[in-house]
UniProtKB/TrEMBL annotation:
Keywords from the named record: DNA damage, DNA recombination, DNA repair, Metal-binding, Zinc, Zinc-finger
Task of the protein: May play a role in DNA repair. It seems to be involved in an RecBC-independent recombinational process of DNA repair. It may act with RecF and RecO.
Keyword field contains Transport: no
UniProt xrefs under NCBIfam families: recR
Record-annotated Toprim domain positions: 79-179
Zinc finger (C4-type): 56-71
Protein name as catalogued: Recombination protein RecR
Family: Belongs to the RecR family.
Transmembrane segments: none
UniProt-listed Gene3D superfamilies: 3.40.1360.10, 6.10.250.240, RecR Domain 1
Gene: recR
Length: 202
């Protein structure tokens, strides 16, 4: 335990996701040794995150304007929407360079034990998007790309139930299974089961 402001800083850093006590301590002492100008830049960046970041009116992704760069891109396929939980998931899919449609960020996943129900997520906005043609183009496919965990699966199941009555709409789920370069003997039963059920013809 350290005294005063140093311990306060370590405590606050330790509350960040993925930052344990030792990492918090290392960051705190790094900041102590940093020039004042660097600290001011960090303070300014943190302030701008709270004041300058907005969420896209269309998809809910983080943006500097009312529409994010993806929703403003005329080359994107308007008929294809990928539903993700968080803005960080958009970046993960974008890194693949495989998806050419648009996104819909839910803002989380269903978790009744934590008080997160359908009303706390952007599900109603998704239903409105599907029911309304964008620039004269109807959405023809929704890809559900929620996390492959209990909350993500519950969210995917709920969305499938809500979307199945839309005429002409195809609802798909992001495939999950064995990672490239992995060995079968080290795969857990759930992952291996998913890989089997999601097999494709060759």
């Amino acid at each position: 335990m350290y005294e005063g402001p140093v311990q306060d800083l370590i405590d606050e850093l330790g509350r960040l996701p993925g930052v344990g006590p030792k990492s918090a301590q290392r960051i705190a002492f790094h900041l102590l040794a940093t020039e004042s100008a660097d600290i001011e830049r960090l303070q300014h960046a943190l302030q701008k995150v709270k004041e300058g970041v907005v969420f896209c009116d269309v998809c809910g992704n983080v943006s500097a304007e009312t529409r994010c760069r993806i929703c403003r891109d005329p080359k994107r396929d308007l008929a294809l929407v990928c539903v993700v939980e968080e803005p960080k998931d958009v970046q993960a899919i974008e890194r693949t360079r495989e998806f050419k449609g648009r996104y819909h960020v839910l803002g989380g996943a269903l978790d009744p034990l934590s008080g997160v129900g359908p009303d706390q997520l952007r599900i109603r906005q998704l239903l409105n998007r599907i029911g309304t043609a964008t620039d004269g183009v109807d959405i023809s496919e929704v890809i559900i790309a929620t996390d492959p965990n209990t909350e993500g699966e519950a969210t995917a199941t709920y969305l499938v139930r809500m979307l199945r009555d839309f005429p002409g709409l195809t609802v798909t789920r992001l495939a999950s299974g064995l990672p490239m370069g992995g060995d079968l003997e080290f795969a857990d039963e759930l992952t291996l089961g998913r890989a089997l059920s999601g097999r494709r013809s060759m």
